[in-house]
Amino acid sequence: MAIKVVVGSQWGDEGKAKIVDYLTEEADIVVRFQGGANAGHTVVIGKEKFVFHLIPTGIIHPDKICIIGNGVVLDPAVLLDEKENLAGKGIRVEGRLLISENSHLVMPYHKLLDQVKEESKTGEKIGTTRRGIGPCYTDKAARMGIRAADLLDEELFRGKLTQNIQEKNEVFTKIYGREAIDGEKIFSEYREFGEMLRPFIADTSVFLDQAVKQGRSVLFEGAQGTLLDMDHGTYPFVTSSNTVAGGACAGSGIGPTQIDEVIGVTKAYTSRVGNGPFPTELKDTTGEKIREVGQEYGATTGRPRRCGWFDAIAVRLANRVNGLTSLAVTRLDVLDSFATINICTAYRYKGNTIEDMPADSKVLSQCEPVYETWDGWMCATPEARSMRQLPDAARAYLERIAELTQTKISIVSVGPSREQTIEL
Ligand code: GDP
Ligand code: IMO
Ligand code: MG
Q: In CATH, what number is assigned to the domain containing residue 73?
């Protein structure tokens, strides 16, 4: 039995889903614990490509149980769509998917608020996915959110919805000068969702506790990445949840002492989608080459991802705040055709060298990366199945990443499919 948490060590899209899929082989249960449909998790199996936003990627494996924990903000329309898509591919979720009764629901007004708040920003926009994530977590913290279980009690649901609609309509009409929204339409739509979701809604904390006591293995599938964490990331250019490993406890109801391993997934370089500081970003042809070779386009919004060199300062922060037991380095193959490769080992800020990421985003945005330059390996790695089969220069690069981030590497990924994985 093992309880493992997989988190992103950078700004999301590190290839968490590929690593979770690989590790699911040895797990019984896969759990999402934070975020919502802002996540885009890609798994490639043979010629088939799956992109998940809400359902844990473990669902592809027959017989595995998947849980959407209390920390997730759930958009029922996205979930039901995902369920239908899976059914079309012959994957049934019935009896294998549990949704926490305490998970909060993303409502249409959350998505609209996400959009109008972004549009009305005078300063730099966050560049959210517009999936209603921030507004939904705002209501959760304000103790006016609507939870999955509320959908099952018509009277309770109507009361909570009415209160929310009244308040949101004040905001829409008086602050943003927009039309009021129709609460009745939302009521009937969500009542229908409630009936469709009824068989899946459960006390998942009790379920998990019993499963752990029975010795079953649990894998936690993080969404987003450490630098998008609400507390430890590049605030305010972050998402609205705790993406770090600690979030797995709060977002599922499992205790911290139960966790055996925390695996940080990191790209062999860095990418970011949305706005905010990114010291190693390459706004030149090298950055474009990484984007094109790596096909760095968002799995949720299709936006081009910003690309740059590996930032050891950032991943060392991830090691610290997650208590990583190891790193899974993905997309090594994307660097196959670069003659030289840079690693950021420190930042220069106002004439000083700093080796820890500054908490202030304004300071971070003024930091210049200090690089050390490594020889590229200039040969194809996607066929490598062991460290020995990797070129010497690639091995040396990986060793340097481990050294600088003060972790060990447990997995190296050299392509999107399951078999393109090297376990150390
Ligand atoms: P996630 O959000 O962290 O799960 O990552 P995404 O699915 O958003 O983006 C990662 C992308 O990289 C997906 O298209 C994966 O199929 C792909 N991928 C994962 N590992 C590798 C790898 O080692 N090499 C390459 N070339 N692609 C990979
Ligand atoms: P996965 O799980 C990459 C980014 C958005 C934006 C910021 C806030 O696929 O790694 P939000 O909609 O959450 O309020 O947006 O966070 N973001 C992600 N970037 N991968 C993700 O998820 C992301 N989820 C949110 O681009 O900058
Ligand atoms: Mg993604």
A: 3.40.440.10
Which range of residues forms the domain containing residue 212?
A: 3-102+201-262
CATH number, position 332: 3.90.170.10
List residues with catalytic annotation.
Answer: 13, 41
Q: How many domains does the chain have?
A: 3
Q: How far is the CA of 101 from the centre of ligand 2 (A)?
A: 24
Q: What separation in Å is there between the alpha carbon of 223 and the centre of ligand 2? A: 8
Q: Which ligand is nearest to the CA of 17?
A: 1
CB atoms within 10 A of CB 371: 16
CA dist 290 and 76 (Å) reads 35
Q: Which helix (H) or strand (E) holds 24?
A: helix 16-24
> Is the distance from CB of 136 to CB of 41 less than 8 angstroms?
no
Closest atom, ligand 1, to C-alpha of 43: 16
Nearest CA, atom 11, ligand 1: 15
Alpha-carbon distance of 289 to 301, in angstroms, equals 21
Based on the number of CB atoms within 10 Å of its own CB, is 27 exposed (0-12), middle (13-18) or buried (19 or more)?
buried
364 neighbors 358 (Cβ within 8 angstroms): yes
Nearest atom, ligand 1, residue 421 CA: 23
- Per the CB < 8 A criterion, the answer to whether 314 and 227 are in contact is yes
Reported pTM: 0.98
- Is the C-beta atom of 57 inside 6 A of ligand 2? no
pLDDT tens-place values along the chain, 424 residues long: 799 999 999 999 999 999 999 999 999 999 999 999 999 999 999 999 999 999 999 999 999 999 999 999 999 999 999 999 999 999 999 999 999 999 999 999 999 999 999 999 988 899 999 999 999 999 999 999 999 999 999 999 999 999 999 999 999 999 999 999 999 999 999 999 999 999 999 999 999 999 999 999 999 999 999 999 999 999 999 999 999 999 999 999 999 999 999 999 999 999 999 999 999 999 999 999 999 999 999 877 888 999 999 999 999 999 999 999 999 999 999 999 999 999 999 999 999 999 999 999 999 999 999 999 999 999 999 999 999 999 999 999 999 999 999 999 999 999 999 999 999 9
392 in the same domain as 369: yes
